[in-house]
Design brief:
There is one protein chain. This protein is of the alpha/beta class. The protein has three domains: 2-233, 3-Layer(aba) Sandwich (Rossmann fold); 249-329 and 418-504, Rossmann fold (3-Layer(aba) Sandwich); 335-416, no CATH class. 34% of the residues lie in helices and 25% in strands. The chain contains 17 helices and 20 strands. The chain has helices at residues 40-47, 70-75, 93-103, 110-124, 139-152, 169-184, 196-202, 225-233, 292-300, 322-327, 337-341, 348-353, 371-384, 401-413, 431-446, 458-464, 487-494, and strands spanning 2-11, 14-24, 29-33, 55-60, 63-65, 78-81, 157-161, 188-193, 205-210, 213-219, 251-261, 267-277, 281-285, 307-312, 315-316, 330-333, 419-423, 450-455, 467-472, 475-480. The strands form four sheets. The protein has a six-stranded mixed β-sheet, sandwiched between helices. Strands 16-17-18-13-19-20 form a six-stranded mixed β-sheet, sandwiched between helices. A hairpin with a 2-residue loop joins strand 9 and strand 10. Helix 3 packs across helix 4. The N and C termini lie far apart (52 Å). Residues 356-363 have low confidence and may be disordered. Magnesium ion is lined by residues 40-41, 161. Residues 40-41, 161 line the site of magnesium ion (MG).
């Protein structure tokens, strides 16, 4: 049993962890649940010896321990897979596995290492080729190697920091199978997540953190998603925003045989066609980097197609400039908000109304000629979208990433657009803001907007989309209805398994 008692840790200006106590029993999966910035990573970085706590103590089997470094944590049987992997690309799996051990002065023979990796892989269902070079591995495989590295050290405590953020559904399922086997072997797992569906699937116990404080520790069997959401955010949340059925209208957004290159001149969008009707949300599921960015940018007019056409409300806008598309009622929430969607040196207020940021032209919003009107309206948006900023006059660049996202959302979704392209609209947002985005997108739909939602998170797509298409390698490889029973099928299509879905 491991015990963290009254742990506190401050960074300049923020108490990241505020007298948190946390008990990890052997053989349990214990989830740390909390919004972005709740202190989950910091708490575990203390346990793994990356940070020293300001106060509080750590006990293993009742004995006080001082964990001074990751090496020292490993010596205490504690291993952590961080959000950013640490494999050396040119090294093999086996070499990566023993890298840390070499630093400790242990030099196991290569043949032995490879055999052990195979054994561990078989035991836990974490198969990787020990001879493969790390750079040739998929993200899921890299994660497996990171876990095997830890198991190799004989660790009895495994910390996983948001491991599923980078996985497609069948990989998540395989990871969970492995975690269950580790439990059987009496290994304890700290699982960090903010995805309630997953948390309910894999946890034995759950500790909820909010703003550096431990809200409570509960048994999975004795709680619900709604109760967890409330603990996490501090108020009631609609965990399952009901997908409103709206009668769909005419074709609003149409894309025909679109072919688009990426920045390197390689085909990124390969002959894509689809239609989104008024009052409809078309979800495009995909692992990032399969053409979503280029598709969205091309529809908005920031990237020229090599071939194909884009229509809004029946009008061919393939050669229409962005400014004109905006006037025709097209809104865009790009995935790279900091880089593309705001003018960092303009104030929050100006960013809220300067819809033509993309063309660098003078803001044309009618309200802008009325200063008091602007102030009132921007204050309302700041409040409605819970944008945390010293004032509406603050330059946008001084806001945190999450708040910059909210500025973009507020601008793009408050103008009653005809069509909305939402690229990963909740990425990096906390659960409260996420719920707000869901509600706002569904309101747009109810008002008759056509919404194109590009997302990697299937729960998000299932909540919002009326139809789901899957993009892989720049092509739409299939359609499926947004239903949990299609999770596996969609996941397979997302990872390139052909023939999994309905005809595109
Ligand atoms: N190295 C650091 N320097 C300064 N502030 C940090 C650092 N690491 C985390 N923080 C701050 O501590 C708080 C908790 O962050 P973190 O532990 O990463 O939260 P979580 O993992 O729950 O998202 C946040 O306000 C974050 O900005
Ligand atoms: Mg974190």
């Amino acid at each position: 049993m491991l015990e963290m008692k009254d742990i506190a840790k401050s960074f300049p200006g923020v108490k990241a962890v505020d007298d948190v106590s946390f008990v990890l029993k052997s053989g349990e999966v214990h989830t740390l649940l909390g919004e972005n910035g709740a202190g989950k990573t910091t708490l575990m970085n203390i346990l793994f010896g990356i940070y020293r706590q300001d106060s509080g103590e750590i006990l293993i089997d009742g004995k006080h321990v001082k964990i001074s470094s990751p090496h020292n944590a490993i010596a205490h049987g504690i291993g952590m897979v961080q959000q950013h992997f640490t494999l050396v690309p040119s090294f093999t799996v086996a070499e990566n596995t023993v890298l840390g051990l070499r630093e400790l002065g242990v030099f196991p023979r290569t043949g032995r290492v490879e055999r052990r990796i195979r054994e561990l892989g078989d035991t836990y269902g974490l198969k990787v080729d020990p001879d493969a070079r790390a750079w040739t591995l998929s993200v899921g495989e890299k994660q497996r190697v990171e876990i095997l590295k830890i198991l190799y050290t004989g660790a009895k405590i495994l910390i996983l920091d948001e491991p599923t953020a980078v996985l497609v559904p069948h990989e998540t399922r395989a990871l969970f199978d492995a975690l269950r086997k580790m439990k059987e072997a009496d290994t304890s797992v700290v699982f960090i997540s903010h995805k309630l569906d997953e948390v309910m699937q894999i946890s034995d116990r759950i500790t909820v953190l909010r703003k550096g404080l431990a809200v409570d520790t509960v048994d999975k069997k004795a709680t619900t998603k709604a109760a967890l959401a409330k603990m996490m955010v501090g108020r009631d949340l609609l965990v399952d925003v009901p997908r409103t059925d709206v009668e769909t209208g005419s074709k609003i957004l149409e894309v025909k045989n679109l072919r688009v290159n990426d920045d390197r001149g390689l085909t990124a969008v390969n002959d894509i066609s689809f239609t989104v009707r008024a009052g409809e949300v078309l979800g495009i599921a995909g692992v990032e980097g399969n053409g979503q960015r280029e598709l969205a940018e091309c529809i908005y007019g920031m990237r020229k197609p090599l071939n194909g056409k884009v229509f809004i409300d029946g009008q061919d806008i393939t050669r229409t400039p962005v400014r004109k598309r905006v006037q025709l009622g097209l809104s865009f929430i790009p995935q790279d908000r900091k880089g593309m969607a705001i003018s960092p040196n303009l104030s929050v207020e100006e960013n809220l109304f300067a819809k033509n940021y993309a063309t660098q032209s003078v803001p044309s919003h009618p309200l802008l000629s009325n200063r008091t009107g602007v102030s009132t309206a921007s204050r309302k948006l700041v409040r409605d979208f819970s944008i945390v900023t010293p004032s509406e006059k603050t330059r946008a660049k001084y806001l945190s990433g999450g708040n910059i996202q909210k500025v973009v959302l507020a601008r793009e979704l408050s103008s009653s657009p005809k069509a909305v392209i939402a690229a990963q609209p909740t990425r990096g947002l906390d659960v409260g803001a996420m719920e707000f985005v869901y509600k706002t997108l569904l309101e747009q739909k109810k008002k008759g907007a056509a919404v194109l939602l590009l997302a990697g998170d299937l729960d998000e797509l299932f909540r919002l989309a009326d139809r789901v298409a899957v993009i892989y390698g720049g092509k739409l490889v299939g359609y499926a209805s947004p239903d949990s029973s299609n999770r596996e099928k969609i996941g397979l299509m997302m990872s390139g398994a052909s023939g999994a879905g309905d005809e595109a």
